[in-house]
Amino acid sequence: MVKRIPKIFYGWWIAIASSTMTTYYGGVVYYGFTAFFTPIVNEFGWTRAATSFAFSLQRLEGGIVAPIVGYLIDKLGPRKLNLFAVTVGGLGLLLLSQINSLLTFYAAFLIISVGQSAGFYTVGATTVANWFVRNRGKAMGFLTGGVCLAGTLVPVLVWLIHSYGWRWALVIAGLGMWVIGIPLSLVLRHRPEQYGLLPDGDDSKKHVSVQSIMGKKDDSDKLPHTAPSQPVSTETDFTVWEAIKTRSFWLLSLGSSISYMAMSAVFVHVMPFLESIGFNRDKASLVVTFIILLSVLGRVGLSWLSDFMDKRYVFCMAIGLQVIGLIIFANIRTLWHVIPFLLTFSPGYGALIPLRPAIQGAYFGRKHFGTIQGFYMSISTVFSMTGPPFAGWIFDMTESYRLAFIILAATTAIGVPLLLAATPPKR
C-alpha cells in the first residue's frame, strides 16, 4: 500500500520565499554595508559620521513611509508591493555603484530605502503573521532564522570588492536582487481564507493544492464565496487607532525599538571597528558572518520558546544577552575575545527580530497587522537612525569606538523595564 505524502501548508512556502528574499537584502545592504564602508571612506575621504549618515537617511525614509506601506499591505496584498520593492531596491544598488559625491551617495541610499521599506522583511512578517496564529512564533523564527545565512554573503562581498572593486560589486549585487527577488515575490499571497484555508494549516475540510493557489490572483482583501468551515480562532483584532491608544503599544514599541540603536551601529561599524584595533578585512568579515549565523540560536530557539511562555520574559532575556554582548564588544582586544561576544550578542539580537511581530500579533490580532507594524517601525526608526552616526561621531572625536558601544549597552538595558510593563492590552 502506497502511503500518501501529506501536503505542505502553503504558509510555509510563503515563509521560505520571504526568508530567502530578506536574506539576500540583509546580506548585501543591512549587513553588507559594513564591507563597503572602509573602501568608500578611503576613496572619497569623508568622515565616518558623514558616511554613516547615509544609513540614517535610509532608516528615516523607512520610518516616514512605514505606516503607508503597512496600510498598502493590508489593502493590496503583498505580491505587488514586494515586486515594486525588489525592482526599486536593485535599481538603487546600481545607482550606488555610480556615485561621485556625498549628495549622490545619500540619494542612492534613499532609493534603496524605498525598496527596503516597501517589501522584504516588512511584507514577509505581515504575510506570515496572516497565515499563522498558533504557530506564529515558530513561523516568525523560521522566517528570520533563514536570514542567518545573510552573513555568508559578507565574505563574498569582500572578495568581490577585492577582485573587481566596490563599484562592480554593487552592480553584481543589484542584478542579483532582481534575479532572486522577482520570481520569489510571485509566491506571496495575502490571507489563507482567500483560498478556503485556515491559519496554521488547520483542517478546513477543503484540500487546496499549491498549484491552485499560485494560479489565483491576490488583488484584493475580499474572501472567496467558499469560506472555511471552522472559525479561525478567538483572537481579538484591534483597529489601528485602538492599538495606538493602548499603553501596551507604546511600551512595547519603545522597549523593543531602543535596542535598534545599538544593533544598527554594530552592523554599520563592526568591520571598521575591528580593523581599527588590528583585525584584517578577511577576519573582520568572518566575525560579521558568525554574528549572523549564531543569531539563529535566538531567531529560532527563543522564538520557539515564546510559544510556551510569556513573550515579554523571553524578550527581556534577549535584551539582556544583547547588553552583555555589547559590553564585551566594546572591550575586544584579541581574537579570542570575539567568542563570548558572539555567544551573547548574536542570539540576543537575533531573537528580537521574530519576537517583536510575534508579540504584536498576540496583542493586537491579524486584521490590521501591517498598518500597526508600520506605526511601530516609525518609532523604531528614531532609534535605529541615530546609532550609526553616533558611533561614527564618537570615533571621529576619540579615534576609538569603545566609548560608543559602552553607552549603547547602557541605553539598550532601558528596554527591559519597559517591556515588563507592556502587559496584554484590553479594549
Description:
- The protein is an all-alpha fold and 427 residues long.
- It has one domain (10-220, 236-420): Up-down Bundle (Growth Hormone, Chain: A).
- The protein has helices spanning 10-30, 33-44, 48-76, 78-96, 102-118, 121-131, 136-145, 153-164, 166-185, 210-214, 240-244, 247-257, 259-276, 281-294, 296-305, 311-330, 338-364, 369-384, 387-398, 402-413, 415-420.
- It is globular and about 60 Å long.
- The model is unreliable at 1-5 and 220-233 (pLDDT under 50).
In DSSP terms (H or I, runs of 4 or more residues), the helix count works out at: 21
User: What average pLDDT do the residues reach?
Assistant: 83
CATH superfamily: MFS general substrate transporter like domains
| Shape field | globular
CATH topology, anyone? Answer: Growth Hormone, Chain: A
**Helix residue percentage:** over 70%
Q: What does the oligomeric state look like here?
A: single chain
What is the CATH architecture assignment?
Answer: Up-down Bundle
Q: How would you summarize the topology of this molecule?
A:
Layout (H helix, E strand, L loop, with lengths): L9 H21 L2 H12 L3 H29 L1 H19 L5 H17 L2 H11 L4 H10 L7 H12 L1 H20 L24 H5 L25 H5 L2 H11 L1 H18 L4 H14 L1 H10 L5 H20 L7 H27 L4 H16 L2 H12 L3 H12 L1 H6 L7
Helix pairs in contact: 1-6, 1-7, 1-9, 2-13, 3-4, 3-5, 3-18, 3-19, 4-5, 4-9, 6-7, 6-18, 7-15, 7-17, 8-9, 8-14, 12-18, 13-14, 13-18, 13-19, 13-20, 14-17, 15-17, 16-17, 16-20, 19-20
